[in-house]
Amino acid sequence: MSKSGLLSRRGFLAASAAATAGVSVSFAQSEAMQARLIPQAISALPNLSGQARPFTNAERQARIERARGLMLENKIDAIVLANSTMSSVYFANMRLGGGERLWALVIPAKSDAFVVCPAFEEGRAREMLNGGPLTPNADVLTWQEDQSPYEGIARVLTQRRLGSGTIGLDENMKFVFADGIRAAMPHAHMVSATPVTAGCRMIKEPHEIECMRLACRATLLVYRAVAQSVHPGMTNGDVERLVDLAYSRVGFRGDASLNIDEFTALPHGSRQPQTLKEGSILMLDDGCTVEGYNSDITRTFVLGKPTAKQAAVFDLVKKAQTAALHAARPGVLAADVDAAARKVIEDGGYGPGFAYFTHRVGHGIGLEGHEWPYFVKNDMYGWALAPQLKSGMTLSDEPGVYIKGEFGVRIEDELLVTENGAELLTPQSPSLEDPFGDIGA
C-alpha cells in the first residue's frame, strides 16, 4: 500500500493565510501545492466524463409511448407522478420538487401530458419543459397558494372524460397528495402506477446499460486508487475524503462509506470513528452516477495479510456471488437467485437463513440506487410485477457473511440479465489481498 499523504485542508488554509498576510502565492503555485498533496494513484486517475452520452428527447418520447402501452394493458387511464419521483426524470427529464407544495407530471394514456405546479413556479416549470420531450403540446396547470391543486387535476382529467377513470398514483407520492387527489376525484378508481413506471424502468435500454457500465468502471477505478493510497493511522473519514477527491478526478458525482475491522460485520456500517491499522479488514461500499444512472459496488480487502478465517469467508462469499450469477436468467424467479446464493453460504457453515447472511442477495438498480425488482423470497416491493427475471433487468449481486464482533465480507457487483443468462458489469474481486485484479487503466 502507498503511504502518500492526504489532501490537507490545513495546507489550503495555510496558503490562504499566507496570501492574506501579503505573501505572494499565485494560482499556479496553489494548484501545484494541491497536486503534491494528492496521492499519486488518485492523481493518475483518468477523467471519464467525456464518455457519457446524454439521453435524447427521442429516447424519452419512446419511453412515454411504452408507458402508454402499459397503461392500456393494465387498464389505467392516466398516471400521476408527484414531486421527487425519478420517474418524471425518466420520462420527461423533469426533476420535480416542491416540498409540501404539489408538483406533478400527469401522463394520460390517450392525450397530451400536463404539468402541475404552484403559480409562482410557472416560469421554472416552463424552463424545464423547454426543449424537452413534452413540448410543444404540454400544458402547465398552475395553482395559487390559497387554491387546491387536487381540484385542478380533477378538473383537467374530467374535461378529458377521465373523471371516473382509473388513475395510477406514483408509489412514492406523499400520502397528503394521494389523499387530496382521491378526495377531489370521488368517482375515479385510484391504483398504483407501479405496473407502468416499474414496467418501463425495470427493463434497461442499451444506452442505460452503457451509462451503468461506465459508472461501475469509474467506481472500481476510484476504489483501486483509494486502496493504493491508504495506510495505518488513517480514519474512515480520511479515506472517505480520498474517495470524494478520486471521484472529482474521474469526473462523476459519487461517494463511499468505509468500515473497518469489527464494523465490517454491520452491513451498512457504523457512524463511530474508526482507524486503520496494519492487518485491518476494510469494506468500501456505494458508487457514483453517470447521466443519472447508478453504480453500487462493494469491495472488501485487508491492509496487509488476511487471516485464514477471513480468506475462507471471502472464498465462500465469492462462490455465493457466482452461484447467484449462474442462477440468473430470463424466466427464473428472482427468489431462486437469492436461494442459490444463500444455499452456498449455509452449506459453508454460516446458516441457517439470515443468521450470517443477513440481507437479500440483491436489489434492482438504475436511476435509483434501489429499485425494482429484488432478489429475495416474498419480495414485498416487486414480486407482483416481476416474479420472473427478464432480459435487460439490472440488479446488484451482493452476498455477504457478517460475524458479529469480528468482521464481515461482502462482494457486490451489478448483474445484467441477458437473453441467455446473466453477466456482471464489472470483474469479480479475486481475493482479499488482490481485490481488483486486472481492471485496466
Description:
The model is unreliable at 1-33 (pLDDT under 50). The protein is built from 13 helices and 18 strands. The chain is globular. The protein is α+β, with helices and mostly antiparallel strands. 36% of the residues lie in helices and 17% in strands. Helix 7 (149-159) crosses helix 8 and helix 12 packs antiparallel against helix 13. A six-stranded mixed β-sheet has the order 4-3-2-1-5-6, sandwiched between helices. It has a three-stranded antiparallel β-sheet with strand order 7-8-11. The relative contact order is 0.11. It folds into two domains: 57-201, Creatine Amidinohydrolase, Chain A, domain 1 (3-Layer(aba) Sandwich); 206-424, Creatinase/methionine aminopeptidase superfamily (Creatine Amidinohydrolase, Alpha-Beta Complex), CATH 3.90.230.
Can you give the mean pLDDT?
A: 91
CATH level 4 superfamily of the largest domain: Creatinase/methionine aminopeptidase superfamily
Major β-sheet annotation: 6 strands, mixed
User: What distance lies between the first and last C-alpha atoms, to the nearest angstrom?
Assistant: 18 Å
Rounded to the nearest angstrom, the radius of gyration is: 25 Å
CATH top level label of the largest domain: Alpha Beta
Strand order of the largest sheet: 4-3-2-1-5-6
* Beta-strand proportion: 15-25%
Low-confidence stretches: 1-33
Task: Indicate the CATH architecture of the largest domain.
Answer: Alpha-Beta Complex
| Number of helical stretches of at least 4 residues | 13
Helical proportion, percent range? 25-40%
Domain Peptidase M24: 210-419
InterPro entries: Creatin/AminoP/Spt16_N, Creatinase/aminopeptidase-like, Creatinase_N, Pept_M24, Peptidase_M24B, TAT_signal, TAT_signal_bac_arc
Signal peptide: 1-21
Protein name: Xaa-Pro peptidase family protein
